[in-house]
Amino acid sequence: MTPRLIWFRSDLRVHDNTALSRAAAEGPVVAVFLRSTPQWRRHGHGANKLDFWHRGLLALRETLQGLNIPLLHRDIDDFAAAPAALLDIARETGATRLHFNREYPWNEARRDVEVTRTFDEAGLTAIGHHDAIAYAPGELLTGGGDYYKVFTPFAKAWHRQLSGERLTLHDAPRPQHESPVPPDPAPEPPTLAGTPAAPEAWPAGEEAAADRLERFLRFRGHHYVEQRDFPGVAGTSSLSPYLALGMLSYRQCMQAVLAENGGHLAEGDAGLTAWVSELVWREFYQHVVVGFPDVCRHHAFQPHTEALPWRGDAAGLAAWQEGRTGYPLVDAAMRQLRHTGWMHNRLRMVTAMFLAKHLLIDWRRGEAFFLEHLVDGEFAANNGGWQWAASTGTDAVPYFRIFNPTTQSQRFDPDGRFIRHWLPELAELPTGSLHEPSARQRQATGYPAPVVEHRAARARALEAFKGLTP
């Protein structure tokens, strides 16, 4: 029997993998991975994400070996080379069918269309499956037949139309009697621009993801509402890197919540339902990139905000990137990002709004910096979050809402635990001074003065936004 190809991308798991399950149901399977490092770099991904991707591939390869499924891998320069590379592998292995799970951003979707067309012209079949989210983009629409622009009605429709079928887990394939073709040797690590920040903090693979999910739901999930906004507490799931690269599926997450929450997703335990809402937010942004593809081309979701008079403040941008703005919570968050490849969600909002509102620097500069450093860097979620904070996107925070970083610090790091950890130069200050050190304390510790005064920055941002015409 001729083998089927399963093309892995950002779905590095064998359990609950739609494309793999469908391919294995048809006959023997050969796995394929195309590493597009130059393309991924052009898309803005940095060493942390690319290293995690590589380690995830190695973990997948080991699991596939236990199933006697060979993994073939190729390095290509860009997505345009994918159709020919896959067609060559199909001819080498005698495969007539290719299965893959769809990706939704503009460039990835165009790549998949070209792969399907190339296979069709060669008399072969390429089949894309919707796997990463519950509803394929276009399935959930407003009463007027449009894509949702606001999260709350989207979430209501998501829950209202949800069926058990959408949450059914796909079986992992059984071990094959023999390998259809010899596997390739393990791939060499990619050449990275920089050194990964903290790979030990992010063990790769679906076993690590499943373990982290279980521990979150058992020990922290029920307290998620009370703890998720406090960066000094381990209150979040820390599952975003595993979801971004598909080492864990949304169905596995939802099924785990159902088991822990009496069969409910939208009611019951407040912590668990709040976490489900965050997963639905992630899906919402995947729909946005399809329904409003201009966001994939560096455009604001709200076109009138393109007229904002962004400042070309190189010194301010560097201070923000390096964690020396003079606002302790902002600086601690940016140092967390640079040292771990991850940032607490509350702090992503605080730091993003500081750049876009306090410094009036184009949100796209911050979006790119985050994507370069985040181990969980995912275009749709990152773009959606940045545009929310900058008041240019869907569900955008009203332009006049501008977080006071000192107040945010006092509220969400009241004992200064997070600040002390990431700003050791301030560790000996009294807690009351940690959030806003005096000039004397700054001089004594070498901590910089604020790059901008909050009231003046707020007034400047309000003036900039008031001049826009929707």
TrEMBL record:
Record field: transmembrane: none
Disordered: annotated span: 168-199
Record function comment: Involved in repair of UV radiation-induced DNA damage. Catalyzes the light-dependent monomerization (300-600 nm) of cyclobutyl pyrimidine dimers (in cis-syn configuration), which are formed between adjacent bases on the same DNA strand upon exposure to ultraviolet radiation.
Site (Electron transfer via tryptophanyl radical): 310, 363, 386
Cofactor(s) this protein requires: (6R)-5,10-methylene-5,6,7,8-tetrahydrofolate; FAD
Gene giving rise to this polypeptide: phr
Highest taxon of the lineage: Bacteria
Compositionally biased residues, Pro residues: 180-190
Keyword terms of this UniProt record: Chromophore, FAD, Flavoprotein, Lyase
Record's catalysed reaction(s): cyclobutadipyrimidine (in DNA) = 2 pyrimidine residues (in DNA)
Chain residues that bind FAD: 224, 236-240, 275, 278-285
Pfam families membership: DNA_photolyase (PF00875), FAD_binding_7 (PF03441)
Top class in the EC scheme: lyase
Photolyase/cryptochrome alpha/beta domain boundaries: 2-134
Gene Ontology molecular function, alphabetical: deoxyribodipyrimidine photo-lyase activity; DNA binding; FAD binding
Sequence ranges of Basic and acidic residues compositional bias: 168-177
SUPFAM superfamilies: Cryptochrome/photolyase FAD-binding domain (SSF48173), Cryptochrome/photolyase, N-terminal domain (SSF52425)
Gene Ontology BP, a term: response to light stimulus
Cofactor notes: Binds 1 FAD per subunit.
Protein name per its UniProtKB record: Deoxyribodipyrimidine photo-lyase
Family the entry assigns: Belongs to the DNA photolyase class-1 family. Belongs to the DNA photolyase family.
